[in-house]
């Protein structure tokens, strides 16, 4: 339940920060904002139920609190091409202003990631060290390995191992490797520290080991937290933002390449269910890991939104590019139909990904 509440809050914050970017830039440029909503009601989807919980009007803007607590939205006057002749309409503004308003959401997600990475740097960034750096920890788990099937996770610190005739207190990587090698094909018990909990996990190291893998299917190391002084944290946060952006772009590139060449994806794509379980793992590891996780989610959201996909910010920016090349505005009705179709496709993809997440669990 704690993880569920946390993930609802996290997703809401990521979306609201994004929407606040649109809101703030529109207001600064003199474009009328009709509504800023926290959560959603039935009205946003064409239904009367459930109704809005509360509405407050300030400076011509309706601020609403809604019962469906996932994120929020901003409603900008003229965003669908209407009232082009009115100066306060989004549709009446030059291309550069519309680009700024649309792109501000993506920018705010990058800013949020930078803040989270900076805060995480103060608390401590996980990194590999030598034997003096920390306990022997799991720093990688191979897919479909005995370790994955047993439920071992990244960051688990191995403190003790047991078999029928032996109990071993772990002090070095060699202890773990030798123990696993000695009991291949037999059930062993691992006592691992995950966050503040010590868990007992049963596993059976493989007697027949695939080439390039170990009997248990884990990578080991001495995992520790490297803390950065507060005055250097913004610089470290910016470096981490740069590395994360490159990594996410490479991930999207590999995904697109696989889809175009094979019609399949070699990488695992997760939806809300997958994010929930990953969030639970990182929450148990501690606040520093959780901040890194949320920062990477924010980078993912920013990059996903800037891709030229209909219904997303990148799709709207693409239509502005076409307008610039063409020299005249694209028919608003045509653009709205394309974004509507794109939205439906995204919903279908989300349902399929969620189904895949649930199927993977069982």
Instruction: State the helix count.
Output: 9
Strand order of the largest sheet: 2-3-1-4
Helix content range of the residues, please? Answer: 40-55%
Q: How many angstroms separate the termini?
A: 20 Å
Overall tally of structural domains: 2
Provide structural commentary.
With about 350 residues, the chain is an alpha+beta fold. It has 2 domains: about 1-30 and about 75-120 and about 280-360, no CATH class; about 125-225, PDZ domain (Pdz3 Domain), CATH 2.30.42.10. The chain has helices spanning about 1-30, 95-125, 145-150, 175-180, 235-260, 270-285, 285-305, 315-325, 330-360; strands at about 35-40, 55-60, 60-65, 70-75, 125-130, 135-140, 155-165, 165-170, 190-195, 195-205, 220-225. The protein is elongated and about 85 Å long.
Summary tags:
2 domains, alpha+beta, 4-stranded antiparallel beta sheet, 362 residues
Please describe the topology of this protein.
Blueprint: H1 2-28, E1 33-40, E2 54-58, E3 61-65, E4 68-76, H2 95-123, E5 125-129, E6 136-141, H3 146-150, E7 157-163, E8 166-169, H4 173-182, E9 188-194, E10 197-203, E11 218-226, H5 233-261, H6 272-285, H7 287-306, H8 313-326, H9 332-361
Parallel strand pairs: 1-3
Antiparallel strand pairs: 1-4, 2-3, 5-11, 6-11, 7-8, 7-9, 9-10
Helix pairs in contact: 1-2, 1-6, 2-5, 2-7, 2-8, 5-7, 6-7
């Amino acid at each position: 339940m704690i993880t569920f509440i946390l993930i609802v809050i996290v997703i809401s914050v990521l979306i609201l920060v994004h929407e606040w970017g649109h809101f703030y830039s529109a207001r600064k440029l003199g474009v009328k904002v009709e509504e800023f909503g926290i959560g959603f009601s039935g009205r946003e989807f064409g239904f009367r139920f459930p109704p809005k919980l509360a509405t407050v009007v300030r400076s011509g803007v309706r601020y609403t609190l809604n019962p469906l607590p996932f994120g929020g939205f901003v409603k900008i006057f003229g965003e669908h091409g209407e009232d082009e002749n009115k100066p306060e309409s989004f549709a009446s503004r030059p291309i550069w202003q519309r680009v700024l308003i649309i792109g501000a959401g993506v920018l705010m997600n990058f800013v949020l990631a930078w803040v989270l990475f900076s805060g995480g740097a103060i608390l401590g960034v996980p990194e590999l060290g030598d034997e003096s750096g920390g306990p022997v920890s799991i720093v990688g788990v191979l897919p479909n390995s005995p370790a994955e099937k047993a439920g071992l996770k990244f960051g688990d610190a191995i403190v003790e191992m047991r078999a029928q005739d032996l109990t071993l207190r772990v002090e070095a990587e060699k202890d773990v490797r030798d123990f696993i090698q000695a009991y291949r094909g037999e059930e062993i018990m691992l006592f691992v520290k995950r966050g503040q909990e010590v868990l007992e996990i049963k596993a059976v190291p493989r007697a027949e080991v695939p080439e390039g893998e170990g009997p248990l299917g884990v990578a080991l190391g001495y995992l520790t937290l490297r803390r950065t002084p507060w005055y250097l944290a913004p610089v470290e946060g910016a470096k981490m933002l740069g590395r994360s952006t490159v990594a996410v772009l490479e991930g999207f590139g590999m995904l697109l390449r696989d889809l175009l060449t094979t019609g399949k994806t070699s990488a695992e794509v997760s939806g809300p269910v997958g994010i929930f379980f990953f969030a639970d793992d990182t929450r148990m590891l501690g606040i520093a890991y959780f901040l890194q996780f949320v920062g990477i989610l924010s980078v993912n959201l920013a990059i996903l939104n800037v891709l030229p996909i209909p219904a997303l910010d990148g799709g709207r920016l693409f239509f502005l590019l076409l307008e610039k090349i063409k020299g005249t505005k694209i028919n608003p009705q045509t653009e709205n139909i394309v974004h509507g179709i794109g939205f439906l496709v995204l919903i279908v993809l989300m349902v399929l990904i969620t189904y895949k997440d649930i199927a993977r669990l069982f």
